[in-house]
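To close the section, here is one more complete example, presented without commentary so you can practise reading it yourself. The ligand is pyridoxal-5'-phosphate.
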Amino acid sequence: MKKAIKMIDLTAEYQQLKPQLGQVIKKVWSNGHYINGPEVTLFENKLAEYLSVKNVIGCGNGTDALQIALMAIGLKPGDEVIIPAFAYVSVIEVVCLLGGIPVLVDIEDQYFQIDSSKIEEAITPLTKAIIPVHLFGQSGDLQKIIAIANKHQIFVIEDNAQALGAKLIIDGKEKMLGTLGHIGCTSFFPTKNLGGFGDGGALFTNDDELAHQIRRISNHGQQNKYEHDIIGINSRLDSLQAAILNFKLQYLDQNLSLKRSIAAKYIQELSSCKKIRIPSKNPDGIHTWHQFTIKVKMGKRNELKDFLKNRGIETMIYYPKSLHQQKAYTNFRVFSPISDRICDSVLSLPIHSLLKLEEVSFISHTIKDFFNAKH
Ligand SMILES: Cc1ncc(COP(=O)(O)O)c(C=O)c1O
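Output:
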């Protein structure tokens, strides 16, 4: 039987890195600083250099990063935060945990991003921040969002969990996503662009005061040991994760460029298939293709998913429901026809740096076979 094709192959990736990773891990074990050790500072500095941002602060995971960001800007119960209706759950979860009110805005139909033309009508005197989620590895019209936020004096927190390494081209210059708003947040969940061997996250900011606040909040509100000036949480990056991430960071751009070739191959193979819509790339940006998400027409998504599964091809549905369709968040129901409709048609195909172009061809041909055979 043919080898199954996974969405992402973490075991194969580990095998590739294994010879050098052993040394990296042993070094942490032998110096005994398991939390906030020298590896964390080293990694924060290296990532800051990669992103050309003044401050990077590691934390426990990407969800905590968003929560810490909202705490750092001083979100109070009753404050409103504008978020997309179609996104990963963390963004609504953290707003609610802090007593804020999530104001959901529909996405546009092209890039899966919050519809910037609908943001201004959602702003009220209570709006404290906008969180654009750079879904699937790129942003939408972030510059417009930042201009709106500046006009209304509200914060922009970029959820960059899926788009580390992605860029936006502004006045001909490439700028890293996650560094353009007041705070950027990311996740090092193992399947992310830069994935650890466990949970991890980070915040980025060019604002030193916010950086100071973020550092204190993520470490129990303390600046000096056992002096808790503000209420914080315990969310720190483990030294072991930092050492692994630091080692993997050197391969990030190479991996992203491999993913770009895979996406280009999918686009070449699937453009002729009129029964699906292939994802669009924002021409003003550099995509990281965290996901390659197609839209399947005529209600055939689940059938196609099963068809691919029976032929050894794993796929995922990111996401089966928009945020207000989730039971926990039905209170925040809004009119978001695109988000609600898209959940029934999206299907994410395997994409990772070790996926072979022949496998991409096989997946694409299998998709075309499905539509050619009576479906
Ligand atoms: C867009 C987005 N935001 C936030 C998160 C949360 O990150 P974590 O799983 O590290 O908490 C994720 C992770 O899946 C994500 O995809």
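Once you have examined the tokens, check your reading against these statements. Residues 10-249 form a domain with the Aspartate Aminotransferase; domain 2 fold (CATH 3.40.640.10). The radius of gyration is 21 Å.
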